[in-house]
Structure formats: C-alpha cells, structure tokens
Description:
The protein is α+β, with helices and mostly antiparallel strands. The chain has 5 helices and 6 strands. This is Lrp/AsnC family transcriptional regulator.
Amino acid sequence: MDSKERELLQLIEKNGRLENSTIARLMGISEDETEQMIEKLEKEKVILGYSAIINWTKGTDEGAVTAMIDVKVTPKRGVGFDKVAERIYRFPEVKAVYLMSGVYDLSVSIEGKNMAEVGRFVSEKLSTIDSVISTTTHFILKKYKHDGLVFSENEEDKRIVVSP
C-alpha cells in the first residue's frame, strides 16, 4: 500500500461521506485517480464498507442493549482460535469479535432488544459451543466516546468569561 492510498483511507475513515471531488482536492490528485484508488481498495477488501455512527439515545425510544462478553475458549488444533471466532461472528446478534491477550481469549460485542435477549444469546447460543469454557458479560450503560467521536449531552462552554 502506498502513501496516497494510506492518506485516502485516513480521510474516509474520518468522514466516509466525503465526495470524490473533495478527496481529490485534499490529496492533490485527479478525481479519476481517486475513483480508481477507491475501487481498487474496495476490490482488495481493504475498504469493507461505510457506516454512520448513530447516537441512539437522541430522539428515539430504541431500547437496544449492547453487551461486551469476555469468552475463554479451548483453541482448535491446526486452526487456533479462528474457527471458534468464525462460529461466534456468524450469529446475527454479534457486532464484533476480537482475539484478546490476557485472562480471556475473545471479546464479543453483541446487541439485543433487552437484557433478557442478551442473556438468552449467552446461555443458548454462545455457552453451548463446544470450545467455550466460560463467559463474563458486561452491559454497556452509557457511551461516552465511540470510534473517536464524543457522545456528549452538554456542550458546555469552558472558556473563561472576560469582562471589563
């Protein structure tokens, strides 16, 4: 990957809605070059998709629950943790799976309609996988920052008041 591709990736990672003309201008290349570079990176699966970060607590009654689950597993011979992780990430509730260092092997992020639904997922789907030894579930109570964006309730002005 060359430096221009890396620069393009950094731009669209910060704002996936940038138009190709804007990206081209910011990078000092033609719009055609930009389009070709994006197509190449999508084809090579470097760019996997584009998504919006939504603050669901604003203006909605959505009661979705997000949980982070620490999972201790027995790795499979010849494939390590990969096959176990693949089996877990195929469930539609699962939003992310990470191989971790430390006490637990996998960190699994899931979303459910409520805590009971998350509990059913853990007890009926996740815990029943042969390689799973144990799980610890943590419910996200409030998001303060996600993907570099702050979810702030109050935009308090922290400047010092200057008066005559």
